[in-house]
Amino acid sequence: MQYDFTTVTRRFGMGSNKWDEMLRYHSEDQIPQDVVPFSVADMEFKTAPQISQGLKDFLDTSILGYANATETYKQVVCRWMYQQHGWKAKPEWILPSHGVIDAFFNAAKLYSEEDDGILLLTPVYYPMYYAAIVHNRKVVDCPLVENRDRYEIDFEDFERKAADPGTKVFILCSPHNPVGRVWTEEELRKLGQICNRHGVLVVSDEIHSDLVMPGHKHIVYASLGEEFQQNCLILTAPSKTFNLAGMQTSNVFIPNEQLRQIFFQELQKTYANPKCNILGYKACELAYTKGREWMESCIRVIHTNEELVRSFLAAHFPQIKVFPLEGTYLLWMDWRGLGVDYKELERINREEAFLFFDEGHIFGAQGQGYERWNLACPTACVQAALERMKAVYSKYGKDEG
Ligand SMILES: Cc1ncc(COP(=O)(O)O)c(C=O)c1O
User: Fold this and answer.
1) Which tens digit of pLDDT belongs to each residue from 384-393?
2) Ligand 1 within 6 A of 43 CB?
3) CATH classification (class only), 63-290
């Protein structure tokens, strides 16, 4: 089936933060039709027809009352994890949650105490810092190491930090936002062995796990073996894969009974118990039962966009370092080679070039001078953005071809 990955839907007035953010710099009519924001991680693609049609049918035949996750829903989610990633999960391990952020905020609070440490591989998705900070936990950051064009883990540093008795939780971002790594089995095993040795709980955010580029394979952390499975939470959602973030439905897998009870009781305190949106459940079910072909086509478009950016920048801006995109649709780039201060970079991009990236520094101090480009958009928008970039930066004598 042919899917529509080319239509641009202008989302002004639809409550989209990243679209409204552009209006701080330009009025709506000044913004060219082929400009889309490349920041916050949702897609500029129309919903998969299997999901939108399925939701319409559901609306015509159902009643929008309170709803819990049904047994069928949980089985569908487990089947997806097995078919997609080879991990055999049990339906009773699932606690639905409104979001993956909610889930790792809860985990930071529930499995540690004030002043304890939350371990992070940085730079990392910024709400993970807040999960520690808002609960008065310490951020224990283990900086990733740039080894030529690849980010790697400093296992010695990681072990030193995990061994501190105050370190209680490790929030793993897998695949890693923003650096685009898909962690190998060997890397995950090493991390896991260290955490198990020192009694650090692993909260594995796998929201990007379905969006893996050719040649890479996502490993569900819990699938490493029973001792790993018993010391972790696995957080997933259809929201990145199928662009359903507004449906606010995600799934928390907690194989360990005791850990699950702790999480469950917390949800009960707020009557969340665990309850999500009836349309969110349905959308997730439709995505996981009927969406695979759309997802595969979508990954091809993201891959095409990545190749386009990579080859264009290599030809015209070789001073910009583009990291490999192993997974996610978020391309991580080091722009420092242009020799422009990071604040000025942001100004030129937004005001002159209509380029709205996520600025690297929001992911941690190491990200200063870096940009994160969300490539989940029509290829024509990427092409147009590259042309604008060339036109603007050539005025500053920064392009090389
Ligand atoms: C790594 C990661 N985790 C979580 C989220 C957000 O999850 P949710 O919308 O389910 O709270 C994002 C969104 O960009 C993300 O990149």
Assistant:
1) 999 999 999 9
2) no
3) alpha beta
